[in-house]
Write a structure and sequence with these properties.
Layout: E1 8-13, H1 17-32, E2 36-37, E3 46-51, H2 56-76, E4 81-86, H3 87-99, E5 105-107, H4 115-124, E6 130-132, E7 154-158, E8 160-161, H5 172-176, E9 180-181, H6 184-196, E10 201-205, H7 222-230, E11 237-240, H8 250-258, E12 262-267, H9 275-280, H10 287-300, E13 305-312, H11 319-332, E14 336-341, H12 359-382, E15 388-396, E16 404-408, E17 419-422, E18 431-439, E19 444-454
């Protein structure tokens, strides 16, 4: 590729793993066009913040990050450029550009694949500021070479983008567009490339992974994709996130149960269990179906780690309906669980619903569920004491009594707990067998066993 760019680029990526992949794609395109990467924003010629605009706390974090980089730009001088990209840019466009005059360029989610051209225009167009918000239809392919963190042993792989579910509280369809699946052969090519680059665990993501293939001509099945990916030589772990309960089918559960290198881990974001709330949310799934999925999944995989996410304080969530959700949490005993307070987002059907609940009450309900879940997580983790787990070493520990931190198959990065290990030697990227010796509410503690330690280089 002809080198069209010069200078150093610093990228700050906010929000979810799907955004992280977009940032890696943009970094790869900028690098291929001649830019180098700057770890510190002060050392860059161009600052790019890839924003999240999903709910109010995410929007606030994005605005704060933009203003922080704007201050750095001001301190460093007028030659530095500030680019705002991603979901917040897509959602608010020129309004955001006007509100933050330090921004030189604003690009929406549909412009990820054209970032090199935009950066080139930024370098040659002088002081003119611009906002480019197009139709959100970008879908990466295996031809997009991502810039992964140095020495990474884990990578996310986006099998689809966008969403067609139209949940009543959610702005994702307007920010990311309709659901678009990548072709299976293209996904396999990227996975093979990632493994060749040293990736040992691949985590499949999308706005709704279990809706994969429905928009493609021959409607490839997610179970078939999982099976094909699990056959890649050198891939030690495969993990599936964002499995919408309305679309999770038996064949997917059976494939996870049958394949040794697919983690027996399911992220099942149910959001609620009360049927009236599920209907108001437009989740297109009943409480009965949710219960059936959980029973079936645990029946097929007794050692399954089950994660969910919930929303409390949705309009119409009466005290009785909340108690129903709290009882469900206590009865189901999820291994991992996260709770969001409902965020009223303009442009969504739920924004016009009556029976609003105060922020104080939302937070009380959130705390009640998280308190219940903390006790459950602690009890579940304590049942693992004495067991032998396979752990992927991810870094040095910040505790003096443990040398390493890593994750067993029951733990996904960033959203679950970690495993602390002692009795090295080991190295980042190694898979080690360890015996669990202790547990707290979210983390595990163990000792490395020396009878079976697989090095990353093997």
């Amino acid at each position: 590729m002809k080198k069209l760019l010069s200078g150093k680029l610093h990228i700050l990526s906010l929000g979810c793993a799907k955004n992280q992949i977009d940032s890696e794609v943009m970094a790869g395109l900028a690098w291929a066009s001649g830019m180098t990467m700057a770890e510190r924003p002060q050392d860059a010629d161009v600052l790019l913040v890839n924003t999240c605009g999903f709910i109010r706390p995410a929007k606030e974090e994005s605005i704060e990050a933009i203003l922080t980089l704007a201050q750095i730009k001001k301190q460093q001088g007028h030659a530095m450029k500030l680019v705002v990209a991603g979901c917040l840019a897509q959602r608010y466009g020129k309004e955001l550009l006007a509100e933050i005059p330090e921004t030189d360029l604003l690009v929406g989610t549909g412009e990820v694949g054209r970032i090199a051209g935009h950066l080139r225009n930024l370098q040659t167009a002088g002081p003119k500021r611009a906002a480019v918000v197009s139709r959100p239809d970008f879908l990466m392919t295996s031809r997009h070479e991502r810039m992964l963190p140095s020495g990474a042993a884990v990578a996310y792989l986006k099998i689809s983008d966008g969403c067609s579910n139209r949940c009543a509280y959610c702005v994702i369809p307007s920010i990311r567009g309709r659901a678009r699946s990548r072709r299976p052969d293209d996904i396999l090519r990227e996975a093979e490339t990632l493994v060749a680059r040293g990736i040992r665990e691949i985590i499949l993501i999308g706005q709704d992974t279990t809706a994969y293939g429905r928009d493609l001509k021959n409607r490839p099945a997610l179970s078939g994709l999982l099976s094909d990916l699990s056959g890649i030589s050198g891939l030690r772990r495969l993990r599936l996130l964002y499995a919408h309960p309305a679309h999770l089918r038996t064949d997917v559960l059976e494939t996870i149960a049958a394949r040794e290198n697919i983690c027996r881990y399911i992220d099942l974001p149910i959001q609620h269990i009360d049927d009236a709330i599920l209907h108001a949310m437009n989740r297109r799934v009943s409480s009965k179906t949710i219960w059936e999925i959980i029973r079936q999944a645990r029946g097929l995989m007794p050692d399954l780690a089950l994660r969910t996410s919930l929303i409390v304080g949705f309009p119409g969530e009466t005290p009785k309906r909340f108690e129903r959700l709290l009882d469900f949490v206590g009865e189901t005993r999820f291994d991992h669980l996260g709770v969001f307070t409902y965020s009223r987002e303009e442009g969504t059907p739920a924004a016009n619903l009556p029976s609003r609940i105060s922020e104080k009450e939302k937070e009380r309900r959130q705390d009640a569920i998280m308190s219940e879940q903390a006790d459950i997580s602690h009890a579940v983790n304590r049942t693992l004491i004495g067991s032998v787990q396979e752990v992927l070493i991810e870094g040095l520990s910040d505790r003096s009594d443990f040398a390493w931190v890593g994750r067993c198959r029951r733990q996904a990065p960033d959203i679950d707990g970690i495993t602390y290990l002692k009795n090295g030697p080991a190295a980042i990227g190694d898979f080690v067998r360890c015996r669990i010796t202790g547990a707290d509410h979210y983390d595990l503690f163990g000792e490395i066993l020396f009878d079976n330690c697989e090095k990353k280089s093997l």
